[in-house]
Each structure stands twice: as structure tokens, then as C-alpha cells.
Amino acid sequence: KRKKFVYMIKMSSLVYINGIDDITRKANELVVTTYRQLEIYTFMILEYLVLIHIVSYFVRKIEHRLKYK
């Protein structure tokens, strides 16, 4: 059971990294076409921070549940 959980966490982190890569690529494309670096990269950083906080919240909840089982 734990092996499946560890595998799931590893695979979701790989998917997450690919998602961040896509966000960065899209931001770079927008910068090239609009020349608004500050606004685009600021939004990208905020989006990244929100995603990290959401993922961290769910990981803490899962760890808490596993701790008491």
C-alpha cells in the first residue's frame, strides 16, 4: 500500500514539474509577442506560488492521515 502511495507522489511531482515548464514556456511566448515582461512574469510567479501552496496543503493532509493510521 505504501509503495503505491510513494509511486503516486513521485509521478504527480513529475507531472507538476512538466506543468511548471509549460507555464514558463507560455509566459516566454507572451513576453515575445507583447513586450510586457513585468506583468507576465509577475503573474507567472503568483500562479506558481498558488500551485505550490495548493499541492503543499494536500500533501500535509495526506501525511497527517497516514500518521494516525
How would you characterize this protein structure?
- The chain has 69 residues and is mainly α.
- Helices cover 93% and strands 0% of the residues.
- The chain has two helices and no strands.
- It has helices at 2-34, 37-67.
- α1 (2-34) runs antiparallel to α2 (37-67).
- The longest helix has 33 residues, at 2-34.
> What would the average pLDDT be, to the nearest integer?
77
Low-confidence stretches: none
Instruction: Tell me, briefly, the overall form.
Output: elongated
Helix proportion of residues, in percent? over 70%
H/E series: HH
Structural class: mainly alpha
- Distance N terminus to C terminus? 12 Å
Strand count, sense and closure of the main sheet? none
In percent, how much strand structure appears in the residues? under 5%
Number of strand elements = 0
Count of helical stretches: 2
Q: In angstroms, what is the radius of gyration?
A: 16 Å
List the main descriptive attributes of the protein structure presented here:
69 residues, mainly alpha
Can I get a quick summary?
The protein is built from two helices and no strands.
Secondary-structure map with pairings?
Elements: H1 2-34, H2 37-67
